[in-house]
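Narrative progress, year one. The postdoctoral researcher (J.K.) led the effort to move from monomer predictions toward full complexes, under supervision of the PI. The following entry was the first complex the group processed end to end, covering 717 residues in total.
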Amino acid sequence: MKAESQITVDYNGNKQRYISAALSAVFMGLGQLFNKQYIKGSIFILYTLSLLFTTVDKFASSLKGLVTLGTTPIEDHSLFLMIEGIVAAFLLLVIIGIHLFNVWDAYKNGQKIDLGEEVPSLKGSIKNLTDNFSAYLYIGPGMLMMLVSVIFPIIFTVLIAFTNYNINNLPPGNIISWVGFRNFTDLIHLASWRATFVRVFSWTVVWAVLSTFMSYATGLFLAIVLNNPKIKFRHIFRTVMMISWAIPGFISMLIWRGLLNVRFGHINRMLTSIGFEAIPWLNEAMWARVSALGVNLWLSFPFTMAVCLGLLQSIPGELYEAATVDGATGLQKFKSITLPLVLKQLAPLLIMQFAMQFNNFGIIYLLNNGGPARFGAAGNAGDTDILISWVYKLTLEVMRFDYAAAVSILIFFMVGGFSIWQFVRTKSFKEEELVQ
Amino acid sequence: MKLGKKTQERLYLAFCYTIILIGVIAVLYPTVWIVGSALNPNNSLFSSRIIPEGASLDNFRELLTHDEYPYLRWYWNTLKIASLNAIFSVVLTAGCAYAFSKFKFWGRKYGMITFLVIQMFPALMALVAIYVVLNMLGLLNTHTGLLLVYVGGAVPFSTWLLKGYFDTIPNSLSESALIDGASSFRIFWSIMLPLAKPMLAVVAMFQFVNPFNDFILANIILTSPSQRTLAVGLFNMVSNQFANDWTLFSAGAVLAGIPMMILFLSLQKYFVHGLSGAVKG
């Protein structure tokens, strides 16, 4: 359409494009017939008719099911009605899309007639279609997979957040109903839930910030030490330190779970054998948090160390030579050359790491089940539980699916906002023109 | 008093070696401990020694013949799921990445943002939904169901990785092939894929390792013991409040960990490169 505004087009006063578009909008395929594309028009008409005769009532009942979520317990299963409804709504969108495409196609070909050009034959249309759409063919399979196992569950979760699907209300024995924003307001208004939510949320933020910071500080520090050419065997040391990343994470977490055990853990055995008192590594709130942070550091520093080493080696040596000539000390060189250059490169990684730590379920759950448990905490939230592990407990232990979904949405907004912000800042996005 | 330059340097080097020593000990300590307890002949860990007296391979023997823990079965399940996950993920994401990198089409930019945002969310967040959907499809407690979730979840991140790599392949290559009359699929198959082999290998590796590490999805989807993967099986050996199967667990962990460790250490360059490359864009 941009082209039209730039160059003046002479339609000779013809209105074919509007008429055929309008006809196609009323009933699919009519516009194509009007444009004398008989075969294409017939295909569209057949498609519409088959749709009308076979599925209209099914669509209507599926969408109705999505609105009411069923009326009679046992007979109607609210969850299945919900899934059917989402699928129906999605298919409806696809059908609307095809319809819009059909209107657009009629308009385009009508335009060609107005301009006195030849209308492409069916063969030409198909070739045109496959050329334009081969991109969609390549994306299709992956997209479909993602749709089924990622996007669909996310939509479903979002819907659950607005229902009362929980332990007191399980289908098919009960009918689930829509409750609007009540789950979200409950998290704020009900005192015990609010207290737990605020506690878990603040610890999640502290956790994500501290573990990201610690892993980068340690990684950078070790990288600088190992980057010194005077250190002998530094490649061997580097490889040895990669071991803690190389062992499958869940194994290391479970190993640490054993090592830190208050009664038979090896660390406490060593401490007591040299006369210290046993430390409740996993059994007291403060220590449990320190342990989680420590073990996470153990797991995550090799990656940042490796990245930092790569960055350090990419800094041109002349910079340091010039600084030495100017009489800069080691510390000055670090402060004005190394740190700024490395930090600039690390910024996007830091953000990714933060998002990952925010949702680092594995370490919290495998190390300590989110514990130590706290008596009377809403939704079984223990002292080291972060939002995502709380969601897990809300789902599997206390079966408050509605609250779990609501908390998931909150996480979604926090992490999603972060990742979009980071993406918009990247160069590849800025240089990309909007493809029409 | 000012220290001589040489002394200063020596002190700094000594400091560096101390730091390295601490790092190495911290990394090796749990590793050595787990090997030690795998060799421990007693069924308990009441020992403050790292390498036990009378070390033996009894734990391994017991683990492989244990009635309650079908360890070899878990191993086989995990290998199977890991391989299939790697293959399917590579096939699906190669197509997506090629289209995003080399085609101009409506919705490209928003498609890419969608992939980026979704990539940030662990499947865990939609736990209930995944469970209900798989239940409806009759795929609970099947490896197919688990694979479906793994592969679908792998698409966004791996697509970003691969797209970045395809972007570095100059367009002139595909354009000249186009002039010679090659179809887009031919360009994809005979030019793009062979050139992208290193990154395809990285994607395959990531997806191969994932089932070894994932506990949560496997735990929820696979309910019967014989269907389990290593992560779930090993967790259940030690998570029980009264579990005293630590030595058996240790043997299992060593058997599962060593091959993965060797695989990883020999390919670590690609892992680091892949992970840091994905976000630079």
